[in-house]
Design goal:
Elements lengths: L8 E2 L4 H10 L3 E4 L15 E4 L6 E5 L2 E5 L4 H9 L16 H6 L7 H4 L6 E7 L5 E5 L10 E4 L6 E4 L23 H5 L8 E8 L6 E9 L2 H20 L8 E8 H9 L2 H5 L9 E9 L5 H9 L9 H11 L7 E3 L4 H28 L11 E2 L5 H14 L4 E6 L4 E6 L4 H20 L14 H26 L15
Parallel strand pairs: 1-3, 2-3
Antiparallel strand pairs: 4-5, 5-10, 6-7, 6-10, 8-9, 11-13, 11-14, 12-13, 12-16, 15-17, 16-17
Length: about 500
């Protein structure tokens, strides 16, 4: 988001430093890696506070760690990997910082199996606008039955109301403040985008045993058949989770690329560089993440994927190969077996080529056509039963407006991202109208127009937040903000406008 400016940068090492910064700043914006897609980490005159030096890491026990807000997800993964553990809910881009992912309740490809960041946060240390430091542990502070928290002690006690709106019942929601009866105080700060306090550290759950993970890339000439294949894999994965050791296909994530996305892969040569075949008639591609028992070898996996009657720990891969054949997947499906890092990087490069290709086209249009051209994309999620209808709505809306667009995302969650590829500033304006239409349709279908990227300062997303919860819902959020930050000091203008 262009136009950011800040008078000062503060880089604290402790919560005491953060409290000092808050005491001397009229307005302050806490930032992590500034990888926000909503402008939430772009300053508008506030003092910037970077968490980059808050990088402590400690093991609490075999299933919990304590980490500083400035630690990146990649660094966190490296640390827990030392004990063969994993932290599953991180976003696709692992350069994001832990504090930023908690502040946005970030989610990624593996949300289908493991949930969002919220489910893995056991506690947070947060510095309030007043400078008070809260050390919160999950299950220690629940909301009063009448719908409020009391924070602080003595004359500093503050009553914080809980919004009464009902959040969409979908796996990912990054749409303003969390609200639920008898909610935990930890959850008030998870997803609050730095507007209620500065998160300096967190206690996290980790998986005590890291699974053997493999990737499979396949394309389909028929979208309906591909979605039927996704449905079958989702059903089998849920059976695998509830019946450990049954040998069912344990899918952690399924990502999809539409026909235009696959065209971009071919146009930019990403398929050739990766040694992957994308058939000319392909209309949908799937990148499937499969978890296998920890001791599974690469040889086990490659043998099983090529066999019709395998045995051993990799046997579910034969079931996956049969599923792809059953629903018309191409015969050139590519497997990256556990431990085959080079093969996995090639398949991931195909996925990443889509957003990279779109962003490059947007930047080129901004440079050569109109400097006002900007990225225009949606972040919607719907209950999985409505995914096919939603994909059709994306296509129809873009086609009726004469817009070039590509849609990709986390199909196993029902969360995908239609992106406009603009050829003029008029396309950007029309694209913003399309994003609003997509969001309204997602709300109508019981989903959320704001799934995993947050609200930030983006005007379209702030409007979608009002569409989701109404003016009363926004006012209830503002009441929470006023209770904890009466001077509107923290991240003013993020999520909703200031007073």
């Amino acid at each position: 988001m262009p136009g950011g400016h800040a008078p000062e940068l503060i880089v604290p090492r402790s919560e005491a430093d953060v409290a000092c910064a808050l005491g001397t700043s009229a307005a302050l914006l806490a930032i992590g890696a500034q990888s926000s897609l909503t402008g939430g980490a772009t300053p508008r005159g506030e003092v910037l506070l970077s968490t980059e030096r808050m990088r402590d890491f400690t093991w609490i026990d075999d299933a919990r760690v304590r980490a500083g807000a400035g630690l990146t997800i990649a660094e966190l993964d490296q640390r827990v990997r030392e004990r063969d553990c994993s932290y599953p809910p991180g976003p696709t881009w692992t350069g994001a910082t832990l504090g930023g992912t908690i502040a946005t309740n970030a989610a990624g490809a593996a949300t289908f199996k493991h949930g969002t960041t919220r489910a893995w946060v056991e506690g947070v240390t947060v510095v309030l606008a007043s400078g008070e430091v809260l050390d919160l542990r999950r299950n220690e502070t629940k909301a009063h039955a009448d719908g409020y928290f009391i924070i602080g002690a003595g004359d500093g006690r503050v009553r914080v109301p809980i919004p009464t709106y009902r959040m969409p019942d979908v796996p990912k929601v990054s749409a303003g403040y969390f609200a639920a009866p008898a909610m935990d105080l930890v959850d008030l700060f998870v997803g609050s985008e730095g507007t209620l306090g500065v998160i300096t550290a967190a206690t996290l759950r980790v998986l005590p045993r890291r699974p053997a993970t493999c990737l499979v890339f396949a394309t389909f000439p028929d979208r309906r058949a591909a979605l039927a294949c996704v449905t079958a894999m989702r059903d089998e994965a849920r059976h695998a989770w509830t019946h450990p050791g049954c040998g069912a296909l344990d899918v952690a994530a399924i990502e999809h690329m539409d026909a235009r996305s696959l065209e971009i892969v071919r146009e930019d040569g990403a398929d050739r560089r990766a040694g992957v075949t994308v058939e000319p008639d392909a209309v949908l591609g799937l990148l499937i993440t499969v978890d296998l028992p920890p001791h599974t070898t690469a040889a086990d996996a490659y043998d099983a994927f090529a066999s019709s009657a395998p045995s051993g720990p990799a046997a579910p891969l034969a079931r996956l190969a049969a599923r792809l054949e059953q629903f018309g997947g191409d015969a050139n499906a590519q497997l990256a077996a556990p431990g085959d890092v080079a093969a996995a990087d090639r398949l991931l490069a195909v996925r990443e080529a889509v957003p990279v290709g779109v962003n490059r086209r947007v930047a080129e249009a901004r440079r050569t056509i109109d400097p006002r051209i900007d990225k225009t994309a949606a972040d919607t999620i719907v209950p999985f039963g409505h995914v096919e209808a939603m994909l059709e709505r994306y296509d129809q809306e873009l086609r009726s407006r004469g817009l070039d667009g590509a849609t990709w995302g986390h199909i196993s969650d029902g969360n995908v991202h239609p992106n406009v590829i603009p050829r003029s500033y008029a396309d950007v304006e029309s694209g913003r109208e399309a994003v609003r239409a997509f969001g309204l349709e997602a709300i109508r279908l019981g989903g959320s127009p704001l799934a995993e990227h947050g609200v930030g300062r983006n005007p379209t997303k702030q409007q979608l937040l009002r569409d989701l919860y109404g003016a009363e819902g926004i006012e209830q959020m503002r009441a929470v903000k006023r209770a904890l930050d009466p001077e509107w000091k923290l991240a003013p203008g993020v999520i909703f406008p200031g007073p």
